[in-house]
## 1
Amino acid sequence: MKVLVTGGCGYIGSHTILELVNFGFDVVAIDNLSNSSVLSLERVESISNKSVNFIEADIMSFESLVSLFREHSFDAVIHFAALKAVGESIEKPLDYYKNNISGTLNLLNVMKMSNVKNFIFSSSATVYGEYAKVPYKEHMSLGSPSSPYGFSKVVIERMMLDISAIDKEFRGISLRYFNPIGAHESGIIGEDPHGIPNNLLPFINQVAIGKREKLNIFGNDYNTKDGTCERDYLHVVDLASGHLNALEWLLSNNSFHGVEAFNLGTGCAVSVLEIVKTFEAVNNIKINYDFKERRPGDLSAFWADSSKAKEVLGWSAKYDLKKMLEDSWNWQVKNPNGYN
């Protein structure tokens, strides 16, 4: 079967494509390369000995998507392409609303025109909002996220529900995941953000490798065990396998119509300070850090209840924090300048 993966050159997209081609799917990947590198897919091909059809395209271009869907007959779409930094979204809300919402609207419209009904959306735990009780469970109502990034995810999930209400053939899965870290154990593909990293592990890696002087930890006065924010971190390979499980389930359940949401997480909350200390212990390297004032939009602590994914999709996280941090550092050491 042929699958379109948008944002396929990105961190999660490239790891997911590796899982898909290893399983036997025919993959077409698109990406505008604004925060990614096509080298990630070349390396996916080298690991898997399978080919990936890459097309440089932007979901903001309706005409490009129309042309793409005319050229290929897709059985399903996995949608990663989006701007994804919580802090940046607060500074640039219009960019996030335009790219994430309008781009997805283009994609869904072209899918409708092309009669493609299977859709897997890269969502986020932020859809539960800042007042949801932990652990997050899928039956909870969509909340009021504290950032435009999170709100864009809520709008898209709402779009999926509204489409399924009128199109009884539409089949959607929203994968709400938490904080992916780590890299493929080969060290050949990993997370390579452009510019100053917005995520914790790439920043720690760059401090450890000597590219940055120190890590800023935003807030040490939260109501957590050590005062720093707590998150549910999971290995990116586990996350990628979750997309494969979701796609298998979707394509094998012909009677299913509508939209289902699944949390992908470990169910354990780990603090920023714990990440730093464990990284130091696992990789035998010291990380310089300072505490700074809280960042707008950051929540104190949240983690997943992923029992639904285990029961329905047969998925659960396999890798522990030690493995996540070992693989993350292995990627950085082998690629001190990322894909460049």
## 2
Amino acid sequence: MIEYNQYGPEKILSVYDSEAGMRGVVVIDNTTLGPGKGGIRMTPTVDVEEVARLARTMTWKCAVMELPFGGAKAGLIADSKGIGLGKKQALVEAFARSLKVICPAIYIAAPDMYMSAQDMAWFAEANGNMKSCTGKPENMGGIPHETGGTGYGVHHAARVAADMIGLDLRKASFAVEGFGNVGKPAARYLGETGAKFVAVSDSQGTIYHPEGLSFDALAALKEQGRSVVEYPNGAGGEVCDLTSCDRILDVEADILITAARKDLINYPDVERLRFKLIVEGSNIPMSFQVENLCFKKGITVVPDFVANAGGLISSYVEHIGADRNSIHEVIEERVVENTRAILEESLSGNRMPRKCALNLARSRIQKRRSS
């Protein structure tokens, strides 16, 4: 069910191009603070309800980070792994042309799942406006999603949260669900703090080793287009499950970084969890109700629209044409400030972190409406 309330959604646009075979949807959730900002995800199962949930997350994310954007999201219904590059280009270009009516006036696109800087280049060219999207290649003035701004921010959220709950990262272990544009840089930066990287999953399965995994070896596998489950046993890898990425929820680690799937954690899963801290690098990895169960169990959860805002901040820097050399500094400042503020309120009042974050986001939207 799509949640309709005083915050939105304002517009839902479904588009179809018979010649290209393109089917897509855009949800403009809220434009109080500016044009709707949100990425395009391409999966065969994406639907309007999923896009609406993600668009609402973007509304809160932009508000918490005090950026002049509203919330939006888009979905292209296609299997990016099952189509050729030429077909994908045709779908992206058809989608971009169909969105000229709203983009970039009230919607600014970006890459999300199975979308890249190259896709954004096709999108911008077909749309006819370089301001229609962010995450473009550097030769087009863009800051590619692949540069890892989201993962950089996730690691800072984890660092601040760990300190606030009394968890020494130099003695802590962590697991990462998803080893792509978010999970990989988050793992690298978190490993550099001294935390031990003990488990990782991708779409093929999960591996776990309590003595630690080599980030460099895993990164090399992914660069070769291979799965983390091919991590060599001779290098210390202990395969947990060669077929299921869900088994990441069964590993024993202090911190879980979610970095890929929506609705990863569901009601029956909460009892399985042995983490002290979950940092939501992915969007909507669990429902509000499931997150509340985690809170009641004593697991601190840093909400997605706070933890993974680094990519959005990078998009803002690209959109206004600011100095890209300042990106990491801006991401660190805003993610750290807001993570700390939310967790201070949560810990002092024994309140669920997401409730504190939502109150902050809503107050900033209401302030703009009343000004």
## 3
Amino acid sequence: MRAIFRCIVVRLVGVVFFGFLFAASSRATIQYQISLAHPEQHTFHIKMTVPNVSGSLTVQMPAWNALYEIRDFASHVLEVTAANESGALPTEKLDKQTWRIIGSGSITISYDTFWDEPGPFSSQLNSEHAFFNPAMILMYSPDRRNEEMMVGFRDVPEAWTISSPASIGSFQSSRAIGFVVSSTTYTKFADSPVEFADRKGSSLSNFSPLITLTIHGKTEHMDAFKEKLARICKYELVLMGGAPYSDYTFIFHIGENVGGGGMEHANGTAIAARNEETALTIAAHEFFHLWNVKRIRPASLEPLDYTKEQYTQSLWFEEGVTSTYEHYTLLRAGIWTKERFYEALGLAISELEASPAN
């Protein structure tokens, strides 16, 4: 994470209906439908279906995600209702992030969640694009979080395409074409941000496994940008002895009013910056997080608990060492001059010496 995109792209044609998508998969248990209808209203419409419930079902919104701090995603949730095959079910809010539904069988929880906050640490739905970190909009069942799940998207504007580190495919029948994420778990999908926009994805040449990127915003020097990004990735892959992923996705937001910074994920990153130069600097940092934090992890961050703080004294290593190799990468890949490297080093030393905790 820095404070300041394999992208599978398929085109959606028309309005999508998803009941038949999930019926086609007997493997998935928890099923989600995410509607992007009327994106200008900034509201994600969610249906979560949980089968094989006996007596009652408890669901929660995470208390944190995409930043190492407690956040209030539940405050964005509107109008929670639940039903099974027999009809509406009693729903009780136990605390600010937990609901209990009394009933059995296959239960569907329906709710809306409002998001219009730019940047890689938040989620946003508007007339230009949809970007979301899944844990900010999707509830989970605490005792069934590791079950296999499927996600479907509907009511996506026709011109929009999709990009995510998650394995997203298309489904087609005589009735509709749509997007689905299958054979995943909540924890894995929560670490896979999703971008929908009227933008084409592309890939970096001569990389195996595949590295792809999608850019929402304006780039003035796309070929040069991709060439420099490829140098950054190549240097760090050689430095660390190869790729720890099957494919990797960069999601870039570049321009004004897009937020700022970058967030690391196991198989991708989301980055927001005002210009291409800043985006490349952040990319050098976030790509190194593939190893340092996503694979080399402090024990204090495991097992993952979305309900409360997880205290650690290791972020100085996870972020500090990553920032150090960010700078080494930019120098050794020829993005920075030596003068720019030493300037950044001097600023870091000055910041440390001025800190009461030096």
## 4
Amino acid sequence: MEKLDIEITSISGYKNKSLLEEQALKFKPKYVCSVDKVTSDHLKLALAHTTTKVLAGSEGLCEMVSCDDSDTVLSAIVGVAGLLPTTAAIRAGKHIALANKETLVVGGKIVTELAAKHGVKLLPVDSEHSAIFQCLQDPHSAKRLKKIILTASGGPFLGKTAKELEDVTLEQALNHPNWSMGSKITIDSATLMNKGLEIIEAMWLFDLDVSNIEVTVHPQSIIHSMVEFSDGSVLAQLGLPDMRIPIQYALTWPDRKQTPVPPLTIESMSNLTFGLPDEDTFRCLAACKKAAEMGGAAPCVANAANEQAVELFLERRIGGFLDIGRSVENAVDNAQTVKEFTVETAIETDKETRAKTREFLLG
């Protein structure tokens, strides 16, 4: 961060005590926070000789992101847990570098209206949404946006049938061919749930209907997404599959600075392929599209069912990889209409859906 001339005022994390301690000692932030009590207790002892204040829990996160010392918050908490601190940061007038797609999936209307009210920018960090954002930098062309095309690697099971996926192991599902990511998002990529969530996120980020968003399977992950304008022109953003590029762009926008990422070569672009996703096999994608069309609480329900099912799969409490897609599909099919959708409603809907999903999977 020194090379980018960015000062880190606060750091949060979950259970990695040693890394949080290391980063706190290196960057000397005003605050460090963990929602895990064991980790926060460790940090209080480890950082007692410093001026860094250790916070804990969701309340600590909200306090941290609201402090006066920062102007931008990188929201990268996994899942619906990112909604409260992100909205707290927006209310405090912070620009949001958004890596937590679930925040917009669950509370898209809430978050975008809040950002507009407080004059806050939502800067996408996901490689796909960053690609679209970069392709829309010309404000005149952006007014003539016709549709966006999200690219998907296809994950480790590209081309597999439902029959072939019945006995998939956890280790196989975590073996992504292109990206190095956390366990939850890697499973989401394998089920194509990640792409379903990205469709919903893109609707809110770029003010589009679900019918104006397409998905194409691009196994090489060189083209990160494309946009089509009213005259038929298509722009694409290309780069090696390395998250340092979109993360840095969100933090330095509108400027661009050098990254340590190797340059893209002509040779690496010599065999780019594209195809349609198999929504019959990868049911999460179809369920997310349906949830997007339903609106209201349905996207929140889809996300909660997926988070619960993936958690159980990672804990080896369910053996069926395909059960994840079945859970999301079942939850969306049974989603209830909510008249007024608030942050509190979203949290309650998430809680209820998780319970129903556990019952659906475990009996």
